[in-house]
Hints:
Layout: E1 6-12, E2 17-20, E3 26-40, E4 43-56, H1 61-64, E5 72-83, E6 89-100
Parallel strand pairs: 4-6
Antiparallel strand pairs: 1-3, 1-5, 2-3, 3-4, 5-6
Amino acid sequence: MAENSTVLTGTLCTSPRKKVSPAGIPHTYIVMDHRSQQVEAGFPRGIYCRMTVVISGKENQITSNKLVKGSNIKARGYLVWHQGRNGQPKIVLHAHSIELMN
């Protein structure tokens, strides 16, 4: 099996959006901003990215109910390719867990 595992920390820049799939599975969508310093080719580099995070399932909705805009979080999960309604592709983090950091 190929590896696909990601841990990303950041700040929620939008309020969570909740949806229920046709199969009855609840999903919470959040958008987080990540900023860090990384070393690339021996030089420091400032990193910024904005990532959509999805957390799914009834058991995970308890955690998602505590999320508000401005929360600092750590999301653990895997990356998935999504195609938006406008046809633009994007990478989304499907989280196994989200930990509040503040």
